[in-house]
Design brief:
The protein is mainly α. It is built from six helices and no strands.
Length: 236
């Protein structure tokens, strides 16, 4: 199946979020590649090994999705094109899934983490990302933008579910650290996707302004706080 050359933004957004998976595998040894995502052709590059997630942005090629081993580098993504492939509906769905990727794991560990800062951070993720999702949903409704679930939003849901499953086997300081490692990695992926893909792709002015003025500052603040807390937990 040929990779279409008209969908650079969707593939790039997917690569940004795919780095969450790679970071988690490296830092926490989470076997997330065991939960491999079902991808459409433009996002096929995401099944590559983690080392290929960052350096394949400028070359074109073809790929198939059935038997490529996890250790074999996937064919490169398409070259940049002048038009974005992400619709406003896609963006709304991705933002909702991204918010849920912070909310759901936080809910799963809230009563189990031990460190007071970690517990407070988990509560903030639930409260603040729920409010942020509500804000985006209101803007979408006011502008008649219907959320359009897509491969990227599905990947986020899959990663979130797999992470929650992995947290079930952890406790104490190990769970505290694993949760904060996930939060750093997930916010790093969200920040890159928001700045390089979602904001440039948004066509509706109010949606774009909401991402710039509401979503971006929250993601940046959460990332800074997550890094600070993780650093305070000391070596693993």
């Amino acid at each position: 199946m040929a990779i279409k050359r008209t969908e650079p933004r969707r593939a790039s957004a997917g690569r940004a979020f795919a780095r969450i998976q790679c970071d988690l595998e490296e830092k926490m040894k989470f076997p997330l590649r065991g939960h491999r995502w079902v991808l459409t052709a433009p996002l096929l590059v995401l099944i590559t090994a983690c080392s290929g997630a960052d350096d394949q942005d400028q070359v074109g090629g073809d790929a198939t999705a059935d038997t490529t081993p996890a250790t074999t580098q996937a064919p490169p993504p398409p070259p940049p094109a002048s038009a974005s492939a992400l619709t406003d509906g896609n963006i709304v769905a991705i933002l909702a899934a991204s918010g849920n990727a912070e909310i759901v794991p936080s809910q799963a560990v809230l009563d189990r983490v031990e460190n007071a800062q970690v517990k407070q951070f988990a509560q903030h993720m639930i409260t603040q990302h729920t409010a942020l999702n509500d804000t985006v949903s209101t803007v979408a409704r006011q502008n008649n933008i219907t959320p359009a679930p897509n491969a990227v939003s599905a990947q986020l849901d899959s990663t979130s579910s797999a992470t929650v499953q992995q947290f079930q086997g952890l406790s104490g300081a190990q769970l505290d650290r694993a949760f904060m490692q996930y939060m750093v990695a997930s916010h790093e992926g969200a920040l890159q996707a928001v700045t390089t893909d979602l904001i440039p792709s948004a066509q509706n002015p109010q949606l774009r302004a909401t991402i710039q003025q509401k979503v971006l500052p929250v993601v940046e603040a959460h990332l800074a706080e997550a890094r600070q807390i993780l650093g305070s937990l000391g070596p693993s």
